[in-house]
Amino acid sequence: MRITYFFILFIIISCSTQKKGFEEYDDLLYTGLIEYKDQEYKSALNHLEQAIEILPKENEQSYFYAAAAAFHLNQDEKAKNLLKSALENTYINQDYFNNFEEFIPFKNKAIFNELDENFSKNTKTFYSNLEHPEIFKELDSLLDADQKVRTDGSTTEEMAKIDSTNIVRLIEITKKYGWQDKGQLLLWHQRGNYKEQNWVWNYFKPFINKEIERGKIRKSFWVQYEEFENVINEKYQLYGMYPQNYDMFPLKDPKNVDKRRDSLGLQPLWVMNKIYDWPLPENYDKNYSL
């Protein structure tokens, strides 16, 4: 089952700040992305810049597409400023930046060489703007350990030990500093007993639910856990979170899937298809629009 890509993508569009900000940001972001796909670059740039203004630290996607739209409009200086702002305000993997598909037609521009040479300098600004940069870097270390034990031939027991150590530390960090988005993958590894009452979920469920009520975390936070339960135990999907696996786990009640997604603040499946090429399930009805 190809879970990783779609889980990471879900994380990219599921960060946290204000509830009203989420809703306004998403409406502007996805409107801009749809316009970009339709080559309506002027209106796309306008909507994406409005999204950035609402949540400038949300993620790099709004900056990257806005910059690409600016390049298409021959507004190179604006594109340059957007890219610098992206590096200073969001955490960006350098390989992802270098290989972003929409930048390929413009890679001959000097700005890309300049940004590549000064990548570390610009990211230092990002770290200096963090409230707790030491915690951000510690979570990087926890994630490195998480991935290492999954790729170096370690045993299942060794993997479980790392997961246990990491989740203990994540609870300590969360108690002192609040929820950290980078902890999502560490918590995801506990999904196998999501429905159980244990020391992990007895802490995180009430904490996350309270933060959702306060508007600090998206109301879609639990959807990937619920969908995982659906495909493992019921062999179907309710939200279309595994679009590559409709043959194995068909979508239940496809007519109303976008209503269910909307109730959790998720975009309609047709939007995910248009922007990210997600396959659509059989009998899907495009019954929602932006």
TrEMBL record:
InterPro entries: TPR-like_helical_dom_sf, TPR_rpt. It comes from the Bacteria. PROSITE patterns: PROKAR_LIPOPROTEIN (PS51257), TPR (PS50005). Keywords: TPR repeat. TPR repeats lie at residues 25-58. This is Tetratricopeptide repeat protein.
